[in-house]
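The records we work with from here on pair a chain with its fold. Taken together, the tokens spell out the fold as the letters spell out the chain. To see the layout at work, look at the sequence and tokens printed below.
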Amino acid sequence: MAGAKDYDEIALKCVPYHDAFFGTVLDFIFPEDKKILELACGTGILTEMIAGKCPGADISCVDSDGSMIEKAGEKPALSGVRFIEGDMRDCSGSGYDAVVITQAIFFIDDSDRKILVAKIRDMLKEGGRFISGDMFVPGTEFEKELYKKNWIDLMLSNGLSLSEAENMIAPLDDFCGKNTIESFSSELKKAGFSRVIVPYRSGYYGVVVGYK
């Protein structure tokens, strides 16, 4: 994975159909939202989009990588955002209109993730939304190989070398584990979310939204 200095450029070359992916996440964050929490914010790629859509909102962002937080804090568009260096499992607060996380929730183990999902539900106001955009293991080996090939081809077309593209793909199955988009949706339902929808799915990528 790229360091903080080059992260923005590399990330957008690696995420398949990033406009559609991040755009769907953003569809579930509304201009009238007053209090938003982003977990694993990285260098603030999505945060800039949120801040642009919700001017004046109270936006807090958490990431465990201090260099990423520092890079995000240097962006003029994010001068009003509160950045916190820390573990997303230690997040706290209440009354959030939306809690969002992208490309990170499966970095923690199953038991911690289930605890975090339940905590996030409690942190939301009634009607609030948990938006999780992430990578999920496909249902068959055929799909896995097909989506990986398509993903590598896309990264190559975006200017990455073959070795760079293969290094990005290499940890994918370990990251996703056995977590399908269906199993994660079920976790949210078991945590007490009243509605769970999947508004985006393409290859390994998907967006799951849980409503309190």
Remarks:
- The mean pLDDT is 93.
- The first strand starts at residue 35 and ends at 39.
- The chain is about 40% helix and 25% strand.
- Strands lie at 35-39, 58-63, 82-85, 96-102, 124-135, 195-202, 205-211.
